[in-house]
């Protein structure tokens, strides 16, 4: 009880309840995949691909959203365009303030350095790539949606139109484009320089340099530097983040670390759920006609690479 109580004190009530809900899935991962911490690849946080989003430079043109839709061959309805969905991986939200001031915020997967979604997935359908971004293997997915419950930023979306072949949808940071030496589609088509892509280390230096150069303009905080243990999407702003819909109660400790704390106290869960989820995974692959293949799509022979 002491360990669990300590964990609860470090997290908000809402976060702790969410983590408790996915503990069973993460526990099964220990039996199937070695441990809940197996989601990490060991990639150095400083060298992982990242994006700096300067809210003060965004004019709300939505080029990033349109480019994302085209690059990922998405087909959103007018309603889905209003927020993140299975057919909308990037969205620009508008915030109006007194005096006619308006700010626009680009939303997408935050690509956490130690991702709760990947850790909570019992079959590693969501996983951290060697390069760093969080990607997805649809042939493994059980449709359990533990990833949706565990994400502190409420990012993954479920494709309801594929009930018999469950699929989780979200931004993949244009992995294939980056592998080909291209920029993510959203950044390539930003006309104002609000989006900048580079390594996380260099972008953090850039972010702090901009803040230091204009201390009366920018909020003295880089959102994503420490939230949830650090993310690859980094934000700077001239308006307090709380006024722009950002969660300000997110722990700075990696979410999977809390899951592991709870899971280690419930070893009796692991054996039974591991067997159940292993069987479910095998059934899902057979049903989808998919075979086990850990090779990323862009490295397979049919990709022509």
How would you characterize the overall build of this protein?
With 305 residues, the protein is an alpha+beta fold. It has a single domain, classed as Alpha-Beta Plaits (2-Layer Sandwich), CATH 3.30.70.20. 34% of the residues lie in helices and 12% in strands. It has helices at residues 2-10, 13-33, 63-71, 116-120, 146-150, 175-179, 185-188, 200-213, 255-263, 267-288, and strands spanning 49-54, 91-96, 102-107, 126-128, 134-136, 157-158, 168-169, 195-199, 233-236. It has a 3-stranded mixed beta sheet with strand order 8-1-9, covered by helices on one side. Strands 2-3 form a two-stranded antiparallel sheet. A hairpin with a 5-residue loop joins strand 2 and strand 3. Helix 2 crosses helix 10 (267-288). Residues 1-9, 23-40 and 290-300 have low confidence and may be disordered.
List keywords for this structure.
two-stranded antiparallel ribbon; Alpha-Beta Plaits; 3-stranded mixed β-sheet; alpha+beta; 305 residues; 9 strands
């Amino acid at each position: 009880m002491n360990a669990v109580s300590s964990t609860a004190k470090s997290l908000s009530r809402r976060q702790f309840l969410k983590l408790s809900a996915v503990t069973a899935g993460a526990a099964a991962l220990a039996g199937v995949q070695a441990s809940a911490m197996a989601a990490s690849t060991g990639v150095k946080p400083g060298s992982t691909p990242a994006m700096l989003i300067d809210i003060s430079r965004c004019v709300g043109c939505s080029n990033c959203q349109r480019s994302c839709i085209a690059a990922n061959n998405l087909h959103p309805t007018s309603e889905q365009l209003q927020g993140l969905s299975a057919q909308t991986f990037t969205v620009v939200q508008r915030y109006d303030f007194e005096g006619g001031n308006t700010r626009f915020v680009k939303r997408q997967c935050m690509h956490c350095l130690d991702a709760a979604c990947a850790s909570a997935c019992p079959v590693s359908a969501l996983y951290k790539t060697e390069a760093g971004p969080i990607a997805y293997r649809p042939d493994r997915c059980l449709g359990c949606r533990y990833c949706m419950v565990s994400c502190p930023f409420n990012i993954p979306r479920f494709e309801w139109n594929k009930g018999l072949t469950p699929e989780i949808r979200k931004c993949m940071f244009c992995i294939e484009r980056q592998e080909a030496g291209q920029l993510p589609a959203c950044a390539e088509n930003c006309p104002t320089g609000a989006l900048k892509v580079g390594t996380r280390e260099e972008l953090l230096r850039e972010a702090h340099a901009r803040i230091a150069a204009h201390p009366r303009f920018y909020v003295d905080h880089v959102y994503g530097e420490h939230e949830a243990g650090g993310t690859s999407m980094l934000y700077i702003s001239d308006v307090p983040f709380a006024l722009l819909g950002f969660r300000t109660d997110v722990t700075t400790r990696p979410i999977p670390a809390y899951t592991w704390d709870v899971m280690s106290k419930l070893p009796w869960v692991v054996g039974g759920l591991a067997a159940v989820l292993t069987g479910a995974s095998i059934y899902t692959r057979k049903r989808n006609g998919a075979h086990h293949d850990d090779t990323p799509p862009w490295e397979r022979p049919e990709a022509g690479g």
